[in-house]
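Two folds, back to back.
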Amino acid sequence: MPRNAVPYRRGARRVTLARQLDWVQGDRAHSSALNSFICADPPNKVYDGQRTKTHPRPWQLEVQSHFRRMRFPIAERSQLLLGYIDSELATICELGFDQAGDDFRIDTIATRVDFQNQGFGKQALDRALETITVTRETYSMKGEVITRIHYLNEPSQHLFQRAGFVPVALVDGEYETWILDS
């Protein structure tokens, strides 16, 4: 059974339910946890047999490096949500506004390698969408909810697709823009 999961029997089949994360706002007190956060598998570039260092999922390494380099305070238009389980940082979600301040962005959702495939990414996306809904209602905003996903990152594509996002454009050659279809 996966770590930090709760067993549940439904009929003759055993189903494993993810435990709920404890969410906090990221700040300077969480710098140490961010600096040691590993969401890429493998955690570093590896030699490909041709004397070149590469990574099989470069978007994972890019996100991991982003959080390890993060300094506080973060940009005024951004928010960092940290999901903890048993006092261990399991998932990170970074969201904010676009440059014009009209649309909402979900910049990054990352789950630590040893917590992946347990539903924590979905919890992070749900938390981000709840935060955006509250902000919309509080400030009477109507902007779109957008994200960018690497065109080879199928787990993220499935996660966002199940939440109602649709791809609308390819940007930067490797990243697609996805918008919440409302």
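---
second:
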Amino acid sequence: MPVIGVVRSGPKRGDPFVATFSRSMSGLGWEEGRTFQLVALFADRQDERIPVLVGEKAAPTLGVELVMFRVKNRGEITPALDAMAAARVGAVNVLASPLLNGARQVIIERLRQTRLPAIYQWAEAAEDGGFLAYGPRISLAFRHVAGLVDKIMRGARPADLPIEQPSRFELVVNLKTAKALGVAIPKALLLRADQVIQ
């Protein structure tokens, strides 16, 4: 069976938005005084460690400490989220994975209950009530996969089809969620947003 697909990769180091985004994120502030210096990295144990390693390398340059939380099935998700709140992290970075995306609503609701802001790697997550998202749209990724399948069904050789990476990343900020969480968002971040949900 040929393997085809679309690679979900993060923004490239040379992306001029990354530096501005990182500075803006460091300007986020809790109305209650809690800081964002301790950040939970939420990952699927089945995923490769590339995005985790990237996060670990970037953390010192942003002045934050990462606390790793990894789950292997849906039943471990809620206990992991509760453990983040108990650890008094200031924010959560939810990495992209089929497991975590499939439980997106569970994650968003639990983080709302524990009043923890999270950044997601699929743009749709912020539209569904997540605090903030920066990444491609999963709907477009599925569309690309469907296009590749269609080409194969029409006779194209899988070996001739390139593995595609997303070329457009969207920043979606949910101000309604931010207000409910008591988080102040810097103006610079709002000006950079592709979509701001009131």
